[in-house]
Amino acid sequence: MYKIISLILVNGYLCNQKKMDANIKCIGIACDHAGYELKNEIIDHLNNLGAKVLDFGTNSNKSMDYPDVAHPLAESVVNGECDFGIAICGSGNGISMTVNKHKNIRAALCWNVELAQLAREHNNANILSLPARFIDQKLAIEIVDKFFSSDFEGGRHQTRIDKINLK
Asked: N vs C: which end of the chain shows fewer Cβ within 10 Å?
């Protein structure tokens, strides 16, 4: 979901410069107070890649209830306003549980790069959930990058996904 747009020299190393895939029109993001600082770092990173980011809050580190931002994020993905979402809270669990209450949401709690890759490849996750109190900013950005650079494999995995929603 990233495209290599050029090679640049960074600290003497030749690196790929990434840009968000044009097929991704919007990424929604939401957090509680524990994820506020990390959310802002991720928004900056995504904006630097050329992504359109829709911020559902919260907008401070003052204590708040994550469902108040999680439900609007999930709805934006369900209704197609956003293609994907990122949900952040202290452990990542509460906000992930909340968004997963919505039909057709497949949020994956990821605390390392491999989980992010598998969440996309095998589960076609459409919301990435991050545990702000358990990962640092550098790792969070690596997880986000891997999530958005991995594609769903389909096949046997699609059969499993088709069985997730309750009738």
From this structure: C
Q: How many residues does the chain have?
A: 167
Chain segment 108-144, per-residue pLDDT in tens: 999 999 999 999 999 999 999 999 999 999 999 999 9
* Residue extents of the structural domains in the chain: 24-161
- Give yes or no for a contact between 60 and 86, defined as CB atoms under 8 angstroms apart: no
- Of 33, 45, 122, 157, the active-site residue reads 122
Q: E strands, 11-163, where?
A: 13-20, 27-31, 53-55, 84-89, 107-109, 127-131
Fold of 24-161: Ribose 5-phosphate Isomerase B; Chain: A, (3.40.1400)
Active site residue 122: yes
